[in-house]
């Protein structure tokens, strides 16, 4: 569920940034930071709610899991880029 939430939230952040850039450019930066912070807080709260562990263990899980998720995502993108270039 976190993976699906992350993709929907990223779409929301991108589209909100585009809308803010066209309507009120001065709010684009703060709006993006608020939305990204809300994403991180929501993931943290969901992990804390599901596993019902201490704040320190939840923080460790969020950072460690986020690092692993980011690493796997970068590796998948790299493999995809190499495969695209190799088979084009």
How are the secondary structure elements laid out?
Layout (H helix, E strand, L loop, with lengths): L1 H22 L4 H24 L3 H32 L2
Which descriptors apply to this entry?
single chain; flat; 88 residues; mainly alpha; 3 helices
Description:
This protein is mostly helical. Helix content is 89%, strand content 0%. It has helices at 2-23, 28-51, 55-86. Helix 1 runs antiparallel to helix 2 (28-51). The termini are far apart.
Question: In a nutshell, what does this entry contain?
Answer:
The chain has 88 residues and is mainly α.
Q: Which percent band covers the strand fraction? A: under 5%
Oligomer: single chain
Total of helices: 3
N/C terminus separation: 34 Å
């Amino acid at each position: 569920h976190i993976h699906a939430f992350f993709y929907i939230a990223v779409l929301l952040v991108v589209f909100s940034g585009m809308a803010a850039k066209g309507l009120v450019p001065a709010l684009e930066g703060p709006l993006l930071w608020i939305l990204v912070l809300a994403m991180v807080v929501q993931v943290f709260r969901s992990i804390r709610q599901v596993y019902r562990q201490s704040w320190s263990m939840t923080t460790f899980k969020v950072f460690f899991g986020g690092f692993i998720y980011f690493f796997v995502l970068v590796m998948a993108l790299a493999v995809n880029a190499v495969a695209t270039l190799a088979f084009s």
